[in-house]
Specification:
The complex is a heterodimer. Helix content of chain A is about 75%, strand content about 0%. Chain A is built from 10 helices and no strands. Chain A is globular, with a radius of gyration of 19 Å. Chain B folds into 3 domains: about 50 residues; about 60 residues; about 80 residues, no CATH class. The longest helix of chain B has 24 residues. The termini of chain B are far apart. The chains are: A mainly alpha, B mainly alpha. At the A-B interface, helix 2, helix 3, helix 7 and helix 10 of A face helix 1, helix 3, helix 5 and helix 6 of B. The complex binds zinc ion. The site of zinc ion (ZN) has 6 residues of chain B, from helix 3. Zinc ion (ZN) binds next to helix 3 of chain B.
Chain lengths: ~190, ~210
C-alpha cells in the first residue's frame, strides 16, 4: 500500500471497519516500536513482548481514538508507558533482574563476518559499555534522549508522548547529554572506548 | 581564561542539531572566537557520535518482526473478541502463510463448517491446527489471494448479518452479489450452497 495514505487516514478507515488498515499500521510501525523498546529495555524477548502489548493496547483503544495528536506519537506514548512499567517492575523484583546477568541484546548486535574477530569483540564490548552508560540515565532522561535522538520525534512530540512541557523536555535532554559526557569521558580518556 | 557566559545548553543543542535556526548563525560566529564553547561542542559531538554508533548496532532482525502481527492477533483472540475472526484469517491470507484450504471445492466445506461454527457458537478455532492446514504460497498467487480474501470476508459478513438479522431476502441478494464478485473462483460454489440452503429454509446453511 502506498505511503500516500497517512496514518490518521488509516485509523479512520479502521474505525469505519476496514479490517486491513490495522495491519498496515502495524507494518509501518512494528520495526520502529520494537527497536525503541529494545533500546529501552535492552532485552530482546522483553522488547518483543512489549511490542506485541503495544499493538494489542492500540487495537483495543483505537475504536475510540480521537486524532488530537499524531497516531505515531500516541503509539510511542503507549510504548513509553509500558517501558516505564517494565523498569518499575524490574526495580521491584531485583531477583528477576539478577536472572539475566547476561544481557541478551549483546547477542543481537550484528556481526560483520569480514572483519577481524578480535576487533569485532572489542567493538561489541565498546558498544555495550556505551549502552550501559545510557542505562544509567534516569528513566525520564533516557526516554527523552531516545525519542528525540533515535526515533526522530520533535521536541513538541516528545513532550506530548511523555506528558511534559516542552521546556522540561529540553532540560531532561541537556541533563542526559551532560550525564553521558560525565560517564563516557573517563572511558575514552582511558582508551576504553 | 574565564568560563564563557553562554549557556552550555546552546552547545548541547548545537551538537544535537537542535538549535533553532535563528540562533545557529550567531552561535557559529561566537564559536570562532570562543574556545570554551568550541571545546564543549567538540566534546558533546563526540559523546553523541559514540552513543549513536552504539545504538545503531542494536538492530531488530527482520525475522524477529515476522511474527509480531500474528502474535498481536493471537493476544487479541485470547480476549475472545468474535469480530476478530475475519481479521485473523485475513491476516493469514495476506501474509501468504496458511489458508490454502479454500482453493478446492472439496475443502471449502471446511470453510462453511468453520464459518457456521463462528456464527452459531462463536468459538472459531478448536486449536491452532486449523491454521496449519496448508501449503506455502507462491508469490504470483498473492494477487489472486487478495481478491479471494475480500470475497471470503464478504461471505463471513453476509453470514453473520444473516445470523443477527435473519433477513432471508437481504441475505439472498448479498449472496448473489458475492457470487458475482467471486466469478471464476470456488467461492461461487460456496455461495450456491448457501443460496440453496437458504431457499430450503435451513438457516444454518449447513
Ligand atoms: Zn562561548
Amino acid at each position: 500500500m502506498d505511503k500516500l495514505i497517512d496514518d490518521e487516514m488509516l485509523v479512520a478507515q479502521f474505525q469505519a471497519g476496514r479490517q486491513n488498515a490495522f495491519d498496515e499500521l502495524m507494518k509501518r510501525y512494528k520495526s520502529k516500536i520494537f527497536s525503541y523498546l529494545l533500546r529501552s529495555v535492552r532485552n530482546y524477548e522483553d522488547a518483543e513482548d512489549i511490542t506485541i502489548e503495544v499493538f494489542f493496547k492500540a487495537y483495543r483503544a483505537l475504536e475510540g481514538w480521537q486524532p488530537k495528536a499524531k497516531f505515531s506519537t500516541w503509539l510511542y506514548k503507549i510504548a513509553s508507558n509500558l517501558a516505564i512499567d517494565y523498569h518499575r517492575a524490574k526495580a521491584r523484583h531485583p531477583v528477576y533482574a539478577l536472572e539475566d546477568t547476561e544481557i541478551p541484546e549483546a547477542r543481537l548486535v550484528a556481526t560483520d563476518l569480514h572483519s577481524d574477530p578480535e576487533k569485532q569483540l572489542e567493538e561489541k564490548e565498546r558498544g555495550l559499555l556505551i549502552r550501559e552508560a545510557v542505562d544509567q540515565l534516569s528513566p525520564k532522561q533516557k526516554a527523552v534522549f531516545m525519542l528525540s535522538r533515535y526515533e526522530g520525534l520533535q521536541l513538541k512530540e516528545v513532550a506530548e508522548t511523555l506528558d511534559m512541557a516542552e521546556g522540561t523536555v529540553k532540560i531532561h535532554l541537556h541533563r542526559a547529554v551532560k550525564r553521558l559526557q560525565t560517564l563516557l569521558r573517563p572511558l575514552w580518556e582511558n582508551n576504553e572506548i | 581564561m574565564p568560563k564563557c557566559k553562554k549557556s552550555e545548553g546552546q552547545a548541547i543543542d548545537y551538537a544535537s542539531k537542535l538549535l533553532p535556526s535563528a540562533e545557529e548563525e550567531p552561535f557559529e560566529e561566537h564559536l570562532k572566537h570562543c574556545q570554551d564553547c568550541s571545546e564543549a561542542v567538540a566534546s558533546y559531538t563526540a559523546v553523541l557520535d559514540l552513543t549513536d554508533k552504539a545504538q545503531d548496532e542494536l538492530t531488530v532482525p527482520e525475522v524477529a518482526l515476522k511474527n509480531i502481527e500474528m502474535n498481536v492477533y493471537k493476544r487479541l483472540a485470547v480476549t475472545q473478541e468474535q469480530t476478530l475472526l475475519s481479521r485473523i484469517r485475513a491476516y493469514f491470507v495476506s501474509s501468504g502463510s496458511p489458508f490454502g484450504w479454500y482453493k478446492t471445492a472439496a475443502v471449502s466445506s471446511v470453510a462453511i463448517a468453520l464459518i457456521t461454527t463462528v456464527v452459531l457458537i462463536g468459538k472459531p478455532f478448536q486449536s491452532e491446527e486449523t491454521f496449519r492446514l496448508t501449503e506455502s504460497q507462491s508469490a504470483d498467487a498473492r494477487i489472486e489471494e487478495y481478491r479471494q480474501q475480500g470475497i471470503q470476508r464478504n461471505l463471513e459478513e453476509v453470514l453473520i448479518t444473516h445470523h443477527l438479522r435473519n433477513d432471508a431476502w437481504e441475505t439472498e441478494s448479498q449472496l448473489h452479489r458475492m457470487k458475482e464478485q467471486a466469478h471464476g473462483t470456488n467461492w461461487t460454489k460456496v455461495a450456491d450452497k448457501h443460496l440453496q440452503s437458504l431457499q430450503s429454509g435451513d438457516s444454518t446453511a449447513q
